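ok so I'm stuck.
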Amino acid sequence: MMIVLTTLIFAAIGLFLGGGGIWLIVLGGSWFYLIAGVAFLATAFLIFTRNPLAYWVYGATILVTLAWALLEVGFDWWQLGARGGLVVLLGLWMFLPWVRRPILRDQYGFPEQNPTARGGPWPLAGAVALSIIVAAISLFTDPHAINGSLPGIRNADASASERVPADEWHAYGRSEKGQRYSPLDQITPDNIGDLELAWQIQTGDMKGPNDVVETTYENTPLMIGDTLYVCTPHSWAMAFDARTGDQKWKFDPEVPVDGNRQHQTCRGVTYYDDPDLAEGERCKTRVYLPTSDARLIALNAEDGTICEDFADNGTLHLETNMPYKTQGYYYSTSAPLAIAGKIIVGGAVNDNYSTQSPSGVIRAYDIDTGELIWNFDTGNPDRTAPIGPDETYTRNSPNSWSVMSGDSDLGLVYVPFGNRVPDQIGLNRSPSEEKYSSSVTALDVETGEPAWVFQGVHHDLWDMDVPAQPPLLDLTIDGETVPALVMPTKQGEVFVLNRETGEPILPVTEEPAPQDGGLEGENLSPTQPVSALSFKPPKLTGRDMWGASLLDQLACRIKLKQYNYEGRYTPPSTNGTIVYPGNFGTLNWGSVAVDPERQVMFAMPVYMAYTSTLVPKSKPGAPTQGINSNNGSPYAVAFTTLLGPLGVPCQAPPWGYVAGADLTTGEIVWKHKNGTIQDMNPLGLKIRMGVPGIGGPIITKGGVAFLGAAMDNYIRGYDLTSGEQLWEARLPAGGQATPMTYETSDGTQYVLIVAGGHGSVGTETGDYILAYKLPDGT
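replied:
not stuck anymore, here's the structure
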């Protein structure tokens, strides 16, 4: 019976590999799978006929597989496992007594009576042993790591002009510069391992049964004067004691549930101290709360009550002057920018819902009164004076859903723009929309007029919004101090620009882009910009395909060949296109953290391949499930992660890293796998594989960096110099938010993170805020 079962197993695998191998060859792929299929079928025949040559043939199969795997991927344990794991396990199966004994008995008699028979299985044993040795070596080899040390302090005076007190955190990125850098140095690489939980609270705001999938805790709290200011997914504003976590006040704007929204989140609130009001006057200090139903509400920072003197009894209605006011299509997910007596607001527009969508206009209001001062609409960029009450902004124009930066000294605001909807179809874009799409644009803070624009993707058809607040710092280049802006992008480029002029500081080149396979009439850009500081991945090839075994790895290699794919920027198509990096982003809204004294950067690059398929609506029986409708367009669009038949990513790990770069040279000095699969497998195995994440890092003067974000429930601390992980703490829910740090009036430094999970990536939901500190007396 076991001989028949073993024969069937080997024969089935052989037929799958042989048939799939022929298919792959026809598609222009590797011949190995056909050869392996023939070897499996030969082994199946020899087992069925009880011929000991089965051990020789299968031993040779393992050796050939091992040689092929090493040639393709070297000593990469996860890649070797996909290629050889099943093959070696079946070799061990052939050693089981109920398989081995019948084969050897029929040929030689009982093995115990025939010494010659004892030698039958050993060719296979040698091949299995060699494979295990190679696997053991690969366990201690990391071919993906870059090892090095970032430089020390190069500009000790870099923080001298900072307006935010060293012990506080006044804005989403700590200050208008968005550096995510704190000058606190109580926590160091030497003592970070002693960090302990100081307090933990729950906000009470949880995802409801009727909420959209992407209900997320992405908030970075502010800390001013021993008070923390927080917003939650349903746009509650809350204040807590920074030393104890005790709640001081809560404001609920009572945002209605709306299934039209793509996002139910609040990344941050905005703090403002009115210099024209005396200490103790009501609403001298304010918190501005953006809501997911398109309001901006001014609150008294002392007690959370509405400041009625702002706008319409304390509320700005952001749908004003919008061309379409479909409920849920426009809202604010990120903290506005307070600068020069103004509050500057962008907004999120639903991707790929409709060609009749609200505008992506940027608006500056008087921060005291709510009066509109200027508006910058990428669809009508020459008119920045406030439009009339009966006029409307340009529909569908590129929007800025992330966080802006500002330079009060230069009088400029830096806006990260997204793309015009629909993202994958560029047939009807105006020249001005083409110019500002997927760019960072510097606007004059007084007039809203553009000072310069730098585009990260030309004619963006891949949803490669500039997703992140661009940090500002000064760099020392050839002995000269240069005002710099760091522009992280989804496609993996990090452009380092002169923030006064928009000119590149680190070289930017234009490289040829794929031109075949897009829609007829699409004006594809022949080139795309590439920075000297780049996390762009190599083009995917068959050897990058992965799976739980050789079988689904073969299926993924076939899948790779079936889609249109010529590398980054392969045009969307009705056949289906691989988008890599995907629109999840190599870098996303968590941005990067920069150290202005060391002039270095800490980043969390992520690599996941997606597919994008344009679905003609005129096609009979066109699918309607699992696609974005693009109402008003002839094409809907379907997205999915590039997965194998078992739901395992086709693309081999690692999928997530931490990395350190020198901003003066563009060199990536170190890069290490980040995160485990502990919360991604049913057994809870804590295997450090390098997993995706969404969120951002912070850096402190103490020489450490902190990051949650990964798809396992941890916050981690790293040595900024080497990238070595020094500390971690288990979180009760997903930590898909950027942490922050502060020091209270009693001299204690805290590290804080919001942990509530992220609907889109499926991490554990919750409503937690956790603060860590060193033990008392340390």
